[in-house]
From TrEMBL:
It comes from Lutimaribacter pacificus. One of its GO terms (molecular function) is L-aspartate:2-oxoglutarate aminotransferase activity. Belongs to the class-I pyridoxal-phosphate-dependent aminotransferase family. Keywords: Aminotransferase, Pyridoxal phosphate, Pyruvate, Transferase. Residues 34-379 form the Aminotransferase class I/classII large domain. It is an enzyme of class 2 (transferase). This is Aminotransferase. The lineage of its organism: Bacteria, Pseudomonadati, Pseudomonadota, Alphaproteobacteria, Rhodobacterales. Its cofactor is pyridoxal 5'-phosphate.
Amino acid sequence: MKLSNRITGMVGAAGGGWELFFKARAMADAGEPVVELTIGEHDIRTDPVILAAMDRAARGGHTGYAMMAGTDALRDAVAERVQARTGVETTRANVLITPGGQSALFAAHHATCDEGDRALFIDPYYATYPGTIRAVGAQPVPVAAHAEDAFQPRAADLAAAAPGAKSLLVNSPNNPTGAVYSRATLDGIAQVCRDHDLWLISDEVYDTQVWDGTHLSPRALPGMDARTLVVGSMSKSHAMTGSRIGWLVGPQEAIGYLANLAIHTTYGVPGFIQEAALFALEQGPGLEREIAAPFARRRAIALDILGRQNAIRALPPQGAMYMMLDIRATGMSGIGFAEHLLETHRIAVMPGESFGQAPAGHIRVALTVEDARFAEAFQTLVDTAGALAA
């Protein structure tokens, strides 16, 4: 029997970029001491107070079907949080609760794209973006952002790709580059969307991890609230990756239709997880700062080590839990260097080529292991690059 073209072609001819991660995980599962600096998984787990709230909710009976668009209490809390951070009026009618940010990305593209439509996104990109677009039957169209521009996308490049497109997906703070888009960059993005009647899908799951600059949601820019869908998640802000809890914020009409999508796909998020998410949000920004703090420390550790060598070039990440390193002086591709590092030192990083064409010759390092272990692994990485570049 033949499977659908949509499912068999979802990851594209180049694959999804996960091969080295799977190899490193298999080595670790076999008992080898691999330092995994690959995916954005916190080295601490969900705070016990949040887990206690989840347990209370489950034992209190919140184990049945919950409202498919999300509980009123959680939608209200997300709306309050978004309005406080952006200044844009937001109510529960603007909020859909989703099983994590990835589900919100899928829903957003379903809402904005028909079969065969062109959907723009920025290269470098999070590895699931092209596959998510293909999964709704749309055509993924990457638009390169360049290291010489600090990976800030150029409005002129977006405008050149925009004719005939339906949507544009952006991500700030950015995974994988750590870039936080400037006001000028976001103004350019907004102008392109207005000029070409594009939906803007803004992935803001790292909005609590800003080290340099200020996070600005493009939904807050003039004329953008009616054409912007914002993806949010508890995964990064509250170390709740496995709980699969996120949201999509947008115009009331769009959210109403997306609630129908939830009925026909996820059928909502478990009530006890929503109760835990509500409890977590009620703890306020102090808890979010506590969860973000280790990544700021490790960023400082990495920058200190980089400052004492000349084989690797890097833009200091402005946000998120990653660092993008230019290793072209080694004479190797990002894939080749990552394979060499894994085989010789049992340190796993992601090749830049996993995130598009723009970061070829780079690697992405996740700042996701304990400080001392991270410092040792990062120093080994830098020494390896130095030896290859000599």
